[in-house]
Predict the 3D structure of the following.
Amino acid sequence: MSSRINLYLIYTTFCTLCSGFVLISSAAGSNFKFFPAGETSIYRWKSSVILNEIEANSREIGFLLEGQLNVNSLWQNEEWTLLKLEVVEPKIQPKSNIANSKLDLDKNPFIIVLKNGAIERFFLPKQDKIASKNLKRGIASLFQLNFEPGASETDASGHCNVSSHLIQRKTKSDCFYDDLESLKHSDEILGTKILSERINEYTYDDKIVKTITSKERHEIFIEAKQQLGSIIKSEQIIIHQGTITITKMNAATIEIALSEAAKDLTEASLITEADSKQNHKQFNKEVGLVREHLRNQHLGSIKSAKAFLDLLSIARTASKDDISKTLSSKKNKDVVLQLYDILGYAQTQNSHKAVMKTLHLDSEEHTDQIERYLWALSFSTHPNIEIVEDLLNKFKKYSQIPAKVRDTLILSLASLARTLASSQKHDYQTSKVLRNIEEAIINGLDYAKDIERFVYLNALKNLQSPSTIPKLMQILQSGSLKEEVLAWRALKAFGKKFWTTDLLKLAKKTLYQLDKAHDTSSRTLAADLLLESKPTETTLQDLLYFAASNETNFEIKQYVFQSVKMMADKYELFNSKLQNIIKNSKKLNNYSALAPRGLSTALRRSIFKGASVNGSLISVQEIKAGIVKRGVVDVVLDKNGISKELFTLGIFAGGLSSFTSSSSTTETEDEENSIAGMELTLMGTQIRPFVFFEGSGELMGHVWSGTASEITPAFQALILVQDHEDYLRLGNGFLVQINLKGAVSFDLSGKIEVSIWNRNAQSLIKKSVGYVTKGCIKVDTDFVKSQLEFEGSVEPKLNLEIDADFSDNVKLCMRLSQPDSIFRHSIAKLESIPTGKYEKKFALNRKMDLPGSTYALNRKNDLMCSEIFS
């Protein structure tokens, strides 16, 4: 009995496959016999679009269209089929209301021409509105009845790859189009992700298509916070109701039949077209509405971040005269720097021309405004290459540019070139503009002398062109001590993908000083490369032996050991390898060998854990003679093994050992002059260093006058971190507009108090951020509108307090803390049917408390803090 059942299953499966093959042949081959001429197939037609937030169990919004679809077959031969389609008595119903209303749709018929089942030509009434035309494009797209494997086709969704599963199912993927302007932010951590599924299903017999169902599901979200996003579902279905006989056309060829049937129509593309609605808001007036929130005291808060996003879209459509009027208005004097931030991200010809009309690169009094504009340009995720070319020409043309502006311009051009090169639309090999920028930086480095070379080395760090690596390696071997430090920093920025065997050999020579004496910062940077390049067991063992060696510089050894521990805390495999080396070495497997003997630290602490990404705080402090020589506080996002540095605060100092009177170090100072300053890297772009003082005289002037004893802003800016504008073409003929943006309002302030009499000092570095992400997903036509808006916001802060006591042995206490904050998430939904005078709104607000933290640094620091505050 069992064998009979198996034979029966094999037989029925074979028959099913054969019938599927016959259907495929009839649909895709030269004997397409669906819709025979002289017949009208009557279908029940339904089409819907549903929008919702990512969170489950929330209220959906959208609409349902339904009516009757008549498919009139006017003419047919073995290859060609001419169909005239018309929608009868269409109605529309909002998702949240059971009542439906008459749909004000242009009811003129439209024509499709099939060749072997595939749509070859498409004709629409000239007088139809865009929304009606798109709806008809969506209906026509159902009749792409070509099922050849590996084919591609064009319909209302765009140009799509198609895979067929027998005859009943067709899957569409990788639909693309390039006729609509878009700003796609595809960064793997900060960008926007769109996941799409498109499936068409068919049922029919020999001559009648019974049903066609088209289903789509799209998920749009921000990579860093996946609950900030939207789900879009659309469905279109036709169900056969019956067939009636009509008069077929008598024509010898398809051309003759078409000339008669489509004489009042115009040929069109199946791809939907956008109905552009102009923004009539004036930039000048809108600035006036939010001017108060743009003032300096609101930087670092949500208020200014929201105002920034509200103005950005208006700035992108504003005229040159409107922008110029705004910049020259006396009412905007106190917020003009923030306006230059906004215009730097607008990236339009009008915005750039208005700025260049107002500011002059060779004017000393415009320095602050120019720098803010250039910084915004350099942080942008979508640089305008025409603006970049204009700035490059000005850099070459003007010879009297103030030093600060010139440095910022060089660094900005390098950053813009790197962003353009990473966009896949341009590269250093084929783009003339990018090649010219690289050439200008290399030539500037070759001709500059002494400290003037430093800015070009920092520019190479921003540029990250692989062809400059040999130049940087040359500087490692023949440059000055400071140049060597900057070259190591630039090479580290490239990432381990570009760290060759020769470069890692140089790193070993530098750390262990096998060739010559090196600056301590060069040595610690070389150690970073060795540790981050997936070191072999031998390399790791050498690093541990160095940390346990008789090297007189305890801080270098302590830095290396702390860095090894930090890597071990992050990577389990690395930690296993480390423990194995220590366990099998008598020299290392004891407390005294690796006991802490310095103040330098390297640590990584988690600042938040989310479903999408994790955030970490990396703090590296290289100490020399009791003073931070090189300090770095780095905020990093991690996702699936990928890391992105959002913000890096660097502190540098030199020539200050005499002020500590410490006898704990035997090293002499490398630097002749006292110097201290701060460096910032935002979104991978380093900006011009800020020098607090240079020389003992200037330092003592600050000490005596107390100029830094009050909290003082060091860097303020509005920064666009997410920027995605796009359209999603649905198969049923609707266009979804996608607009996702994220902004940071940034304020970095600090103060320092020094007492010569008590021989101590206290400093505070305070970072305040207002972060807002706003998204709008909408379908907006003449007869229906569905819109979902979401917003996420938070105001995190980070404080670094440093207390130093030089009265006896040097004691240094560092405290890193993050106060409490609140994450707020709001959602607004709208359904509107203008023709039916229907509108309904929904709103939802959520909040989540984020507890603050005080981060433990290391045991040595804890002991020193106890001594200072005892």
